[in-house]
């Protein structure tokens, strides 16, 4: 039944017979509040359903027609499939007929039927005139393609044709895989159950037992029972009348306007919209104070126009930014109504484009409008550009269900901004190589700590890997360098290198520390010079000992090979630390570092009692 349930809202001027029409179709009295009964008008939303032949169910949301309750009417029309625009034959088109029609259009209600009621109370010629009037009024709206049906709720005339028309209405497409959202239109407590909230689900899916968030406050509750159209259900999808029994929360925590959500839903106070002005007599000025109706919520704020204009009149469209006095849960594509604060009239409305919008500055109005035009056309890169070099969390971006951007570790950035960051890396490396021509590269931490400090570790690493993949930079352990960079020794540096090599060669197996070389040869770049020589394989660093030349290493290797060759007759012979020390005339302090080195390069193999021949020495010659 839920898959073929059609949500239909009633709309029209007060006392035009909306509730009587619903009662005639369904047998349900929707005006049940004492004040509604006493005054004979609809104040709150009423609900009833009609089961049609073939299995379709029409769920009616009966909305009030009084001008004071347009907010309630808009809440009832939010997210419905279709509308019944009701016009009484004895009154014709009235102010709230026009305003309700505008609200339905602004909210994007996609289908509907026009009904002329109370035809039993007037002459047939007057009915024909009202039909003609309504036909002219609805030109250019969704109702233009629909017939105007004369009906009498009192006699039943025309009801069968109306039922047939309801059977032809279409259920709108709604996202079932996004966040679940239920704008609350009622909250009450039932003995034995606790808090119950009702509303129309506008997206996503919810299962019984799930934990939900109450927006905009951020509180949580657990669903311990749900109903669809008054029937128990294990789960609910979008576009249905839903009742939720919530555990762990009181009714005063879920007033009308609250959104029960499952999933990420932003609650902005600044949001960008595509706006259309529909009031023929009241213009809208830039920065005007307005009331905003979205879902079942209402809040006040100011509307600031993007682009060049400062005033909108009837039919004008513009991009704009709303700055609200309270958070408003919403997602891109949500429809809203904008009303004047005093006296309260509907000015226009539109669609949410960016609920994550930064604050627009006055000097940026033209560029803002251009960016919103791109976003309105489906260019999601605008969101990434607005996020700047920090980007958007990869999981958050994936949840938005759009393509584009460059993934850098745990963030997604606009392609153009990634290019700018690559330029920052290249410039930093250029300056580093210029200042430290002997250094083989810039430490990654130093690079991250500068202009890129706002990026996460994962993002910086991904950026460098991306550049290395295109052979723009080279990665060497903790160092990064330009791919084209090579160390070149000028005459002065070459002279110091020769002096360093001479000292190291003379020291032999004793080795020389960097500190000794710096003090003897001089120059603050001795360590960098040693790294260059190491890369050229002209020196080797032995841990806990110092720098040694290749000639000394060759001598050590050959001597070890000779010693083990001499013991070939005794495969169990081992070289003890004491024998090693005496053989190479080493001190006790330098013996262990050398043995650790020979183990590392495979010339020896450590056993419990001493060293055996290592594989790198080869077999006995």
Description:
The protein is α+β, with helices and mostly antiparallel strands and 621 residues long. It has 6 domains: 2-167, P-loop containing nucleotide triphosphate hydrolases (Rossmann fold, 3-Layer(aba) Sandwich), CATH 3.40.50; 180-262, Beta Barrel (Elongation Factor Tu (Ef-tu), domain 3); 270-379, Elongation Factor Tu (Ef-tu), domain 3 (Beta Barrel), CATH 2.40.30; 380-486, Arc Repressor Mutant, subunit A; 491-548, Orthogonal Bundle (Arc Repressor Mutant, subunit A); 551-617, Arc Repressor Mutant, subunit A (Orthogonal Bundle), CATH 1.10.10. 31% of the residues lie in helices and 27% in strands. It has 18 helices and 33 strands. The strands form 9 sheets. The chain has a 6-stranded mixed beta sheet with strand order 2-3-1-4-5-6, with helices on both faces. Strand 22 and strand 23 (346-354) form a beta hairpin.
Content-based structural category = alpha+beta
CATH topology of the largest domain: Rossmann fold
Q: Any guess at the CATH architecture of the largest domain? A: 3-Layer(aba) Sandwich
Shape: elongated
User: Low-confidence parts, pLDDT < 50 over ≥5 residues?
Assistant: 31-43
How many structural domains can be distinguished in the coordinates? 6
Strand order across the largest sheet: 2-3-1-4-5-6
